[in-house]
Structure formats: C-alpha cells, structure tokens
From TrEMBL:
Signal peptide: none annotated. It comes from Hydrogenimonas thermophila. This is Formate-dependent phosphoribosylglycinamide formyltransferase. Mg(2+) binds at E265, E277. GO terms for cellular component: cytosol. Residues 118-306 form the ATP-grasp domain. The gene is purT.
Length: 417
C-alpha cells in the first residue's frame, strides 16, 4: 500500500456523505493516514466538516446535487455516513466507476427496512421477528392483528427511533400512524414487527475486505425512545449465542459484500439470536470502541475501505454514555462533570452547531476491569442516577468520616452492589 499527501493531484480522497459524530471520527482516522477528506452534510459546520480538508453543504437527497459534487470532487471512495442519501446518485456514481462503500446495492438494501428484512429473512433465511409491510391505516390494523400485540411500528426509512412506536392495543394504532409521519425518510410505507421479548440486544461490529472478515467483541446497549443512551463492550453472551451471532453477521455481510465495517443489530433470547437490522457503516453504539480497542470501529472502517489488514486488539472492557441536549439552542452548552476527566475516562464533544432537545451532542467513554463496572462509572459520571445510585448517594452524604463504620452504607452496598 502506498500513501500520498493530501491536497495534491495524486491524493487519495474519501468523500463522507453525512458528517455527524461518526463521520468526524472516520475523518480524524483518515487525516492520520494522510488521506484527503471531503465532508458533506445538509447543514454547515457539521462535526466532520470541522476536521476535513473540504466541506460542502448540499441536499443529500437530491440526486443531481450529489452526483454533481461527486463528479467535481472525484473521490476515490464514497462513504455514506447516514441513511438519507439519494440512492439513485449512488447507483449512477458506481456506474461511472466511482467506488461506493460498501457498494450502492448494499446501501440501497440497508436504507430501507423492507429491502433488508426481505433479504435477511426471505433470501438468507435468517431468524427475525414476524413482520408485515403496510401502506394504509386499514392495512396497519390488519397487520397488527396478524402479528399480535404489542407490536413495533416503524417507517421503512428512518433512523434513531424517528417515527417509531409500540402499539400495545388496537386503540394505540391511530397514534402510531400519526407518529410514523414524523419520520425523516420515507414514511409512506411502514413495517409492523412482532415485539421480541429479548433478554438483551447487541451490535456485532463486523469489518470485511479482501483480507477477510473480523468481528469485534459484542456490544451491549440500552435504548430509550429508539435511540441509544448507553453501550458497553464486551457484552456477555453464551458461547452458543455468540457463535450464532457471528454466523448471522458473516452471512449478512457476505450477502451485502464490499469493503467496510457493518453494525449488525441482533436481539438475543436464551440461545436464540434474531437479526434486527444492519448499518453498512460505523454504528453509534460502537463509539465505545474509541476506548476499548487498539483500532476503533472508525479506524477499522477506514482500513477496510483502503484495503488494509484488519488486525486489532481488544484492550479493555469499557462503556459509553450519550450526552443528549436538554433544550434547543444556537449556542449549545454541554455540562460535563469533572469526574469524566479521571484517568479511566474521557469525553468527545461533537461540536454540533445547534442543539435541539434530545440531540446527541457528546459521548462519555469509560474503562474498567469489567464492562458492568465501566457502565456503572459511565452512568454515574454522566449524572444518570437509577434508584439504587440515588439511595447510595443519599446514604453516602449521611455517612460519618469513618466510612467503614457506616452500617447503613454497608447494607446498601450489599443490596445494590
Ligand atoms: N421488533 C422489536 N421488538 C422489540 N424491540 C424492538 C423491535 N424493533 C426495535 N426494537 C427496539 O427499538 C430499538 C430501535 O429499533 P431499530 O434499530 O429498528 O431502529 P433505528 O431507528 O434504526 O435505530 P438506530 O438507527 O438507532 O439503529 C432497537 O434497538 C430495540 O431496542
Ligand atoms: N443512529 C445513526 C447515528 O447515530 N448517526 C450519526 O448521527 C449523525 C446525525 O446526527 P443529528 O441527527 O444530531 O444531526 C449522523 O451524521 C451520524 O454521525
Ligand atoms: Mg437500530
């Protein structure tokens, strides 16, 4: 492999279509290898714009705007970073000889729940929840009845929980129908999924190129309103479930083909593993790899894209916690507790130019001897107190200076760990 300098006639160029927090880390990894970075998004000063050689603001859902920019920039690799991109532009660019990561058809399949679900369940034969696709309220009522209650209703094109809801009874369906309209992508068709009562869910990061396929340790995560709030790695899995998870991830990533990292989302119930969905790009829950691995998911993605070896080491158990904005502001402020700067944790502030309620603005990363300890630290340091933490805090305040003599504290510790 030869490397070049950026901003030269022979530079190796990557174009990020989407420049959020995930793209920003890919851009930083590319900078480290002397790759020229062209960052594109729908709004100015997006996170990756701020660390790229060139920044562009276009309507990424507009075929002509995307194609025009690709033809002008002539990138060696086009890296879709979000789902809402004109797929026609990617197909055309590929026909013109541009290298889309992992490939335009894989992006097409994964950006639409109908395509990927049919591919995974019907072509590859993977286990999934029961599902139906609907385009009218009457169809929704019928499908929900068939799939059963509760059921999960999602627009076929949307991400980060937008437009999703769980209907517990037929009476909830009207509201679900309305919520689906909020989706950013295509809300004209919906998927109705059986609600899987899983024990836990994981993301299995899987990177592939000509050097082969590598799996990261499974990442456990907690979701709120369809968006991740905490993740940890490694997530404990029985060896049978882990083997099944890797088998599913291999099948689906081989089926999609091309170079890059994939976030394979799986639900686990006992030793049963259900395929849920897959992102052909780094995954938000995978930000934890910034602290746990020698090569983060972003570094692995770039290596896969460039055709480099995918070797890496798992360094330490760790966890991540998302800082979500509490209000709308054009001068956002992120409050970070000083404890986040302890030897065993750090923070990444994305630099999003505006906040709106619930928008992910930064991430806290922690390491520890075990993932549960790392998760506990992440929760404490981000100011998330579940009831047990609250009780412990109150008791701590009441304790005398001689900590060990505090009986209440020891009892509480015994109960809550
Ligand atoms: N059929 C289901 N049964 C039970 N829980 C589900 C089901 N589908 C989704 N969920 C829950 O909702 C979360 C979000 O769903 P999903 O991953 O399909 O949406 P998303 O909008 O693509 O999210 P993201 O973009 O963050 O991955 C899942 O991680 C899971 O916790
Ligand atoms: N689950 C997908 C995901 O996490 N995508 C990440 O969020 C950004 C959009 O953030 P925004 O909505 O705050 O602009 C995307 O650009 C990507 O980095
Ligand atoms: Mg998901």
């Amino acid at each position: 492999m030869h490397f070049t300098a950026p901003l030269k006639s022979d530079s190796i160029k990557i174009m990020l279509l989407g420049s959020g927090e995930l793209g920003k880390e890919v851009a930083i990894e590319a900078q480290r290898l002397g790759i020229e970075v062209i960052a594109v998004d729908r709004y100015p000063n997006a996170p990756a714009h701020q660390v790229a050689h060139e920044a562009h603001v276009i309507n990424m859902q507009n075929k002509d705007e995307v194609l025009d920019l690709i033809r002008r920039v002539k990138p060696d690799y086009i890296l879709p970073e979000i789902e809402a991109i004109s797929i026609e532009a990617l197909f055309d660019a590929e026909k013109e000889g541009f290298h889309v990561i992992p490939n335009a058809e894989a992006v097409n399949k994964t950006m639409n729940r109908k395509n990927i679900r049919k591919f995974a369940a019907e072509e590859l034969g993977l286990k999934t929840s029961a599902y139906r696709f609907v385009a009218s309220f009457e169809e929704l009522e019928k499908a929900a009845e068939e799939v059963g209650f509760p059921c999960v209703i999602k627009p076929v094109m949307s991400s980060s929980g937008h437009g999703q809801s769980v209907a517990k009874t037929p009476e909830d369906l009207k509201e679900s129908w309305e919520i689906a309209k909020e989706a950013r992508g295509d809300a004209s068709e919906l998927i109705v999924e059986e609600f899987v009562r899983f024990d836990y869910e994981i993301t299995l990061l899987t990177a592939r190129n000509e050097h082969g396929t590598v799996f990261c340790e499974p990442i456990g995560h907690e979701q709120k309103d369809g968006d991740y709030i905490f993740s940890w790695q490694p997530a404990y899995m029985s060896s049978e479930a882990k083997a099944k998870a890797q088998e599913i991830a291999k099948k689906v990533t081989d089926g999609l083909g091309g170079r890059g990292i994939f976030g394979v989302e799986l639900f686990v119930k006992g030793d049963e593993v259900y395929f849920s969905e897959v992102s052909p790009r780094p995954h938000d829950t995978g930000m934890v790899t910034l602290i746990t691995q020698s090569q983060s998911e972003f570094a692995l993605h770039l290596r896969a894209v460039l055709g480099l070896p995918l070797d890496f080491a798992f360094f330490t158990p760790g966890a991540s916690a998302a800082y979500k904005a509490k209000n709308d502001s054009v001068t956002p402020i992120i409050h970070v507790d000083e404890k986040a700067f302890a030897t065993d944790s750090f923070v990444r502030v994305f630099g999003k130019p505006e906040s709106h309620e619930g928008r992910r603005m930064a991430v806290l990363l922690t390491m520890a001897a075990s993932e549960s300890e790392a998760l506990k630290k992440a929760k404490e340091r981000i100011g998330f107190f579940d009831d047990s933490a609250k009780v412990t805090k109150v008791v701590e305040e009441k304790c005398s200076e001689n900590e060990e003599s505090c009986v209440i504290k020891r009892v509480i510790k015994f109960i809550f760990g």
